[in-house]
Write a structure and sequence with these properties.
Layout: H1 2-11, H2 18-26, H3 28-52, H4 57-83, H5 95-101, H6 110-133, H7 139-167, H8 172-187
Helix pairs in contact: 1-6, 3-4, 4-7, 5-8, 6-7, 6-8
Length: 202
């Protein structure tokens, strides 16, 4: 798993700020609720791609598997929350995903390429945050977050492979454009704590 994490650290433009980790530890209920929302949203994104691109067999197979895994993770987070007496409630979304999606092109094949790149970045950042958080959490939650690393690492790779296929070649230049946006979203202060927020502004 160390190799996969090393690859993710090389892929992402920056590490999660220490301040965000402190925010997460002080807001663990919100972290779990938002984590559940993120898993559900990831499954929804995979399903929407399956509905939109019905003639792309590779995409259909990878997104079907991904949607099942994300929904399983959603159920696991809900179970952890139930044991801890944390209610699953509505939360306003972080500006993170919306900030990345603002740069997505509107016409295919560019649109598909960009949506897949955004998916890869979100999965990679999730993986990086699970790894950053795990050493600071109680044993049960640390074990769970460590267990998610392997699948999240594979998801980001699946998204990147599909993006290259949709583009008919390398996507590094496009990835670099989205990474510049991602770095700002991760490092600049946020007004509300979320799983993909920047550090809280005080």
């Amino acid at each position: 798993m160390n190799d996969a994490l090393k690859e993710i650290h090389e892929f992402l433009p920056c590490r999660t700020p220490e301040q965000w980790i402190e925010n997460a530890l002080a807001n663990q209920d919100v972290m779990l609720i938002d984590h559940a929302h993120c898993e559900k949203k990831a499954a929804s994104t995979a399903l929407s791609l399956m509905y939109r691109y019905v003639d792309n067999t590779d995409l259909l197979n990878k997104m079907s598997r991904l949607a099942r895994e994300e929904l399983r993770h959603f159920e696991q987070v809900l179970a952890i929350m139930k044991k801890r007496g944390v209610a699953y409630t509505h939360l306003s979304p972080a500006r993170y995903a919306a900030g990345l999606r603002e740069a997505v092109r509107t016409e295919d094949p560019g649109r598909l390429v960009d949506v897949l790149i955004v998916g890869a970045i979100i999965e990679a950042r999730s993986c990086e945050r699970f790894a950053a958080l795990a050493p600071h959490l109680d044993d049960k939650l640390a074990e769970f977050y460590n267990s998610l690393l392997k699948s999240e690492a594979r998801h980001y790779q699946d998204y990147l492979v599909l993006a290259q296929q949709a583009n008919g070649g390398p996507v590094q230049d496009r990835v670099a454009e989205f990474m510049a946006i991602e770095q700002k979203l991760i490092e600049e202060p946020d007004s509300e704590f979320r799983f993909h927020s920047g550090p809280l502004a005080y």
